[in-house]
Amino acid sequence: MKQIIQKVDLTFLDPPFNQQKNYALHDDDMPEEQYWAMMKSVCQSVYDITNDGGCIYFMQREKKTEFVLQALRETGWEFQNLIIWKKRTSAVPVRGKYSKQYQIIAYAIKGERAKTFNRLRINPELPVNYKFQRENGIFVTDVWNDIRELTSGYFAGNEAIRKEDGERFHKQQTPLALLLRIILTSTNVGNTVLDPFSGTGTTSIVALQTQRNSISIEIDPQNIECIQNRLKEIDNADLIQKYYQDYICTEKLSQIWGDDFGIEKQQNPNFEMSLFDEISDLITERN
Q: Which of 66, 183, 261, 271 has the fewest CB atoms within 10 Å distance of its CB?
């Protein structure tokens, strides 16, 4: 079995949501009991390879919040926050109940205290009734309404990876801005970030540019090729410098972000490409 060599400091867990999406190598229509048994096993495996004080961010549909919290609690994680990621485009209409406009991200740590928690400051637009500008922005709260999702249409912009025919390469691609906030908050330069369901590799793209190490685990060979291509040469759409000003009010921002403010000086980034089978081996070994 090929072992993951070093322990990790942060995991971003954004699995398939089991809502009948058409994945090439994954059954997204599993029985609910089987699906959540898998999620619990992944949470346990990640817990075992996480440094004390390290953390996990588990993103899911709002209707599955209770199962997320249960999976984390039963595998040793200490729940800290339920982050509400409020979408900025139109809400999804639902018959017979309120339309949906947010996802949840459960933030939990290993142990009683987070090893790293950088208190970021942002400076969003002032409400219309404010008379004076803020002097030093505001701290990021557990409601994130300033990060736009990558929709299937116009608002996806240049960041969305597309096929030759213009269609989205991966319809569930996570925006850079979301991973940037998570990585800046919960890691420091030189720490290691894990993404067990890496998709198009956005976690590693952000980690590379902020001088963090990263481990990407992905089952689909086409996605793996996409990740490798993105990491070989960071194109303009993937550059994160455009978000630096958003956090300019944060104390010691250059130290948190990384002194060279980009990727020009980075040599031999420490990331590992692997298949989902590796973390499955860890799960099988335990059970």
A: 66
- How far apart CA 107 and CA 78 sit, in angstroms, is 9
| Model pLDDT for residues 214-249, shown as the tens digit of each residue | 999 988 888 888 889 889 888 888 999 999 999 999
CA–CA gap between residue 277 and residue 274 (Å, rounded): 8
Residues in a beta bridge with 92: 100
Cα atoms in the 13 Å half-sphere on the side-chain side of 86: 7
Report the amino acid identity of residue 207: A
Q: Which residues pair with 83 in a beta bridge?
A: 105
Please check the confidence at residue 277 and state whether its pLDDT lies above 70. Answer: no
Q: Are 120 and 185 in contact (CB under 8 A)?
A: yes
Q: State the number of CA atoms in the 13 A half-sphere of 215 facing the CB.
A: 24
CA-based nearest residue to 59, from 197, 226, 240: 197
Q: What is the dihedral of CA 251, 254, 257, 260, to 10 degrees?
A: 180
Question: Which tokens hold the place of 242?
Answer: 């455009």
118, 256 Cβ separation under 8 angstroms: yes
The contacts found for 60-65 with CB under 8 angstroms, 24 or more apart, are: 60/15, 60/17, 60/103, 60/104, 60/106, 61/17, 61/19, 61/103, 61/104, 62/100, 62/102, 62/103, 62/104, 64/17, 65/104, 65/106
Q: What is the pTM of this model?
A: 0.86
Domains annotated on the chain, with CATH:
8-286 (3.40.50.150)
